[in-house]
Structure formats: C-alpha cells, structure tokens
Model the fold of this input.
Amino acid sequence: MLENNDEAETTADAAKAEPVKDNATDHKAGADAQATGKNLDAIFGVKLDVRAVLGRSRIPISELLNLTKGSVIELDRRVGEPVDLMINDRLVARGDLVRVKGDMLGVALREIVKDFVTDS
Done:
C-alpha cells in the first residue's frame, strides 16, 4: 500500500508542475496585442508598386517603332495639371510635381481619391 501512496504523491506533484493553459487568457492576450497594434508589424515590410503618372498617349506600333532619341510623345495632360498617384494599378491620389534633393522629383499630394478610402 505504501507504493500506491508514493504514486499518488508523484502524480499530484506532476500536476502541480505542469502549467494549465487557459484559452480565455490566451484569447485576451491576443486581443490586447491587436488593441496595441502589434499585429500590424507583419505588414509594414510589404512593398507596393507606387507610380506617378504624368499622362498617357496612344500611338500606333508603326510610330512607336520610328521613335528615336529626342523624339517627343504628346501626352493627354497640360503643364500644371496634377499627376496621378497609383498604388498597385489603383488611383489613390493626385498631386503636383516638385523638386526634392537637387535634381530629384517628387509628388506633393493635392487630393486623396475618395473611392480609395472605404467606410469599413
């Protein structure tokens, strides 16, 4: 009988040593991480294709093949009109061309396209 008591004590000690997982506590910890925005860290490194579109033109292939250095392609925009800012082929904003860092160009946003912002 003494051996049975030893087994019971060993089982009780093992039960004390093992941590008990509480799913409610794990769910609450996940909700706290969402509330603080830690889940967003995973998407901050995702790269997107961003393009500033000065204008467009349609030309026949025969004209395209005749282009040489110094050729001019007429665009559908006038000087001073805003350029389109596209992210992954979707129009998200319009803005003006500006000079930044010497001879580099940038776009100063003038408007955000409302269709891009969703009401969710």
